[in-house]
Amino acid sequence: MTNIILLAVCLLAGLGLKRTGRFPAATPAALNGFIIHISLPALTILHIHSLKIDLSLLLTAGMAWLLFGAAWLIFGTAGRLLKVDRETTGALILVAGLGNTSFVGLPMIETYYGKDFLGVGIIADQLGSFMVLSTLGILAAALYSSGEVTPRQMARKILLFPPFQALILALLLRPVSFPEWSSQILQKLGSTLTPLALVSVGFQLQFVGMRQVLKPLATGLVYKLLLGPALIFLLYSVIIGATGPVVQVTIFEAAMPPMITAGIIAIDHDLRPQLVGMLVGIGIPLAFITLHLWHLLLNILV
Fold first, then answer.
1. pLDDT in tens, 264-288
2. Which residues of 126-140 are buried (b: 16+ CB within 10 A; e: fewer)?
């Protein structure tokens, strides 16, 4: 419950700081820069270094990759057919294609399924959502923000993306034991991610002109909160025939609201900041309702 209250407080703080004019207009750029260069790399090194990889959880790890791939296919194809601008298409792929499987996902798993299943959420987040963001996510952001991008430019974007560099470093350092003080420092730096990200999103969240983005906003939220998890349910439970609490939690994680960090990356690449802010700002509170419905449904069907 504390994490959920923190989400609301930070989002409202961002809205308040913008309305009162106490922070400069460039505040989101500064906050986003700190997140991308400090907060996110610190969390990457901390969690990937100590992550226990279990082959039995491949379905859980693969969920985010499937969701993002489906989002790219659906929104990319629809964008071309309906002649939607590249920035809107890129924003939908990046933000509606990735879920908040950590800061929202883990507390929700503990609330609905108990602490014993938090490991499933960590796998879904670290081997799924985060790795997708660090690779295909930054690739999509570069492609849809710049238009014509050469393979060399794409590779450069990914290789110079600080969280991706931190991911490589964390994998290389897995055989090395971290001293306690270094883990504490990484934890404290990483803990700044969510409050700063939500303040940044809240600072940019505005409902003026909402009618202009209503269609992509509704489309993105329908995919992220309803259609996406339904696709995972269809594939895992109906086609593959997987059952049990781990599968339930995996599908439950697929129903999480848009990822805050994906929103930061989208805004950093100037992919429709107003739309991105609404996807995150509206998606999180709306998910409290849809997640409860998914929990009831999964208890019956899986």
1. 899 989 999 999 989 998 998 899 8
2. bbbbbbbbbbbbbbb
Residues 6+ apart with CB under 8 A from 296: none
Given CATH 1.20.1530.20, say whether it is the number of domain 25-199+208-301.
Answer: yes
Instruction: For the chain, report the end-to-end CA distance as a whole number of angstroms.
Output: 26
Q: CA nearest 164: which of 72, 37, 264?
A: 37
Three-state SS string over 271-302 comes to CCHHHHHHHHHHHHHHHHHHHHHHHHHHHHHC
Half-sphere exposure of 92 (CA within 13 A, CB side): 28
* Residue pair 287/103 in contact by the 8 Å Cβ criterion: no
Closest CA to 259 of 90, 96, 47: 96
- Beta carbons of 171 and 48 less than 8 angstroms apart: yes
Domain ranges for the chain: 25-199+208-301
Q: Give the predicted TM-score (pTM) of the model.
A: 0.83
Q: pLDDT tens, 99-142? A: 999 878 888 888 889 878 888 888 898 889 988 998 899 999 98
Cα–Cα distance, 298 to 302 (Å, whole number): 5
Contact at 8 Å (CB) between 99 and 67?
yes
